[in-house]
C-alpha cells in the first residue's frame, strides 16, 4: 500500500460537508494511511451538513503535529468553527513550516487564512471565498485542484477524485 506508514490528521467540527470529509478519509485508509479524526472533544459525534455523522478519536490538544505526516481540513461550515481554535491554527502553521501536506477543500481555506499561511501561494476553493483567499495574499485559480508545494486545494465535491489523487501523490513523496 502506497501510504502504509503515513499518519494524517482529519479535522472536524459540526456542519462539515459530508463528502469532503468522508471521501478523503476513506481514500487515504484504502491506501494504508492511518487517519485520526480530531475535534474539540474526543469520542464526540459530529454531524455533517447532510446528516452523516463521524466520531472523533482525539482532541485538538491531544495532537502533536510533529507525529503526523499531513493534515486535512474539510469544507462545509466546519472551517468557520475550526478557525476559532488556536490549537487548530497552530497545527496548521507547524505542518506548513515543516512543509507537510495540507489539504483544503471548499470553505476550508478559511482555516488557512486564519493561520496566515497563504501569502504568495496559489490555491483554489469554492468561488464563494475567492475574495477571502486573494485578500489573504493568495493567487486564486478556478481549477479542480491546485498544488503549490505542500498545499493541495480543491473547489467542491465533484473535484474530489482530482483532489485526492494529487494529495496522495504529495503525501507519498
Topology:
Layout: E1 7-11, H1 18-30, E2 34-39, E3 45-47, E4 53-55, E5 58-59, E6 70-73, H2 78-82, H3 86-97, E7 102-105, H4 109-114, E8 122-123, H5 130-135, E9 139-140, E10 145-148, E11 151-154, H6 160-172
InterPro entries: C56_PfpI-like (IPR006286), Class_I_gatase-like (IPR029062), DJ-1/PfpI (IPR002818)
Domain DJ-1/PfpI: 6-169
Family: Belongs to the peptidase C56 family.
Q: Count of helices?
A: 6
Question: What is the CATH class designation?
Answer: Alpha Beta
Query: In this structure, how is the largest beta sheet organized?
Result: 7 strands, mixed
CATH topology: Rossmann fold
Q: Helix/strand/pairing class, anyone?
A: alpha/beta
Radius of gyration, in Å, reads 14 Å
Biggest sheet strand line-up: 5-2-1-6-7-11-10
User: What is the strand tally?
Assistant: 11
CATH architecture: 3-Layer(aba) Sandwich
Protein name: Type 1 glutamine amidotransferase domain-containing protein
Family: Belongs to the peptidase C56 family.
Keywords: Glutamine amidotransferase
Domain DJ-1/PfpI: 6-169
Characterize the structure shown:
With 173 residues, this protein is of the alpha/beta class. It has one domain: Rossmann fold (3-Layer(aba) Sandwich), CATH 3.40.50.880. 32% of the residues lie in helices and 23% in strands. It is built from six helices and eleven strands. The protein has helices spanning 18-30, 78-82, 86-97, 109-114, 130-135, 160-172, and strands at residues 7-11, 34-39, 45-47, 53-55, 58-59, 70-73, 102-105, 122-123, 139-140, 145-148, 151-154. The strands form three sheets. It has a seven-stranded mixed beta sheet with strand order 5-2-1-6-7-11-10, sandwiched between helices. Strands 3-4 form a two-stranded antiparallel sheet. A two-stranded parallel sheet has the order 8-9. It is globular. The chain starts with 6 loop residues before the first strand and ends with a helix. The model has no long low-confidence stretch (mean pLDDT 97).
Amino acid at each position: 500500500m502506497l501510504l502504509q506508514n503515513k499518519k494524517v490528521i482529519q479535522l472536524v467540527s459540526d456542519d462539515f460537508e459530508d463528502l469532503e470529509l468522508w471521501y478523503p478519509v476513506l481514500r487515504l485508509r484504502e491506501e494504508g494511511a492511518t487517519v485520526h479524526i480530531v475535534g474539540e472533544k474526543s469520542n464526540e459525534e459530529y454531524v455533517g451538513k447532510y446528516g452523516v455523522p463521524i466520531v472523533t478519536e482525539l482532541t485538538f490538544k491531544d495532537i502533536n503535529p510533529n507525529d503526523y505526516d499531513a493534515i486535512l481540513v474539510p469544507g462545509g461550515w466546519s472551517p468557520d468553527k475550526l478557525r476559532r481554535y488556536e490549537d487548530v491554527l497552530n497545527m496548521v502553521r507547524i505542518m506548513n513550516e515543516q512543509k507537510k501536506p495540507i489539504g483544503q477543500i471548499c470553505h476550508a481555506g478559511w482555516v488557512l487564512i486564519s493561520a496566515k499561511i497563504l501569502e504568495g501561494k496559489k490555491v483554489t476553493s469554492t468561488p464563494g471565498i475567492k475574495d477571502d483567499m486573494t485578500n489573504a495574499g493568495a493567487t486564486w485559480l478556478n481549477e479542480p485542484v491546485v498544488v503549490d508545494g505542500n498545499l493541495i486545494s480543491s473547489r467542491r465535491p465533484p473535484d474530489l477524485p482530482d483532489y485526492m489523487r494529487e494529495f496522495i501523490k504529495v503525501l507519498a513523496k
